[in-house]
Amino acid sequence: MRLRLRLFEFEDLPWFPATIRAGMMDYLRFMISLLGTYRPIAPLLAEGLARTAQTRVLELGAGAGGGTETVLAALRTHGQPTATITLTDLYPQPAAWADIARRTHGAIGYEPAAVNALAVPAQLAGFRTIFSAFHHFPPEAATAMLRDAVRAGTGIGVFEGAGKHWAELLLAVTVLPVAQLLLTPFFRPFRLSRLVFTYLIPLIPLCTIWDGSVSLLRMYSTAELLALAHAADPAGTFAWQAGKKRHWWGPQVTYLIGWPK
């Protein structure tokens, strides 16, 4: 899919109800964790940590923390036994994050205050990552995010859980909505509002269908990712690479990763 459209996503809108946004994030977290979407990029991220002599991953735009536990487990089997992850977001979700922190005995922590991915506070150190969210940023903002990482001298990895194919768009409007309806009662922590806005007033699934479809249309190609990186780092102080990693059962992850030379 070479088409790239700058359409809006509901979860980006500042007035969008937090309850509906949280329900959508709960679904994404469950599915990304269930499918192990980001396991294929663990070796890349482990290499980034090794090259920058860090053990802490600072996740930007973490949403509900979907797949973070899977990434942590994979890192620890790829030469990073002491790796930890700190979740951050412009719209923090401490309730969901606290549940993850409890399950991982603190190996995955979080920053309760809002964090702007384009200007990360200096006290929040670590190898920066952003999963399933880089497409939310227009080129100017995306470049600013990468530039901020370059300025701070830390590595950064951008990971999107799709290969940008038409088949993925078809899944987003057919199979995945059915899965959402079937699996919602099993999402934790339990929220009555999630059931109400899934089954009685189906705002969560309808908005998820729209946002999931638009996400694919907004994704950057690997060539565009490299162009953004070079614009953010004109002096070439970072080593950058972009590409796609295929999961053993078929789906792809599109990535951009860079660290100081």
From TrEMBL:
Keywords: Membrane, Transmembrane, Transmembrane helix. InterPro entries: SAM-dependent_MTases_sf (IPR029063). The keyword Transmembrane helix applies. The chain crosses the membrane at residues 199-217. This is Class I SAM-dependent methyltransferase.
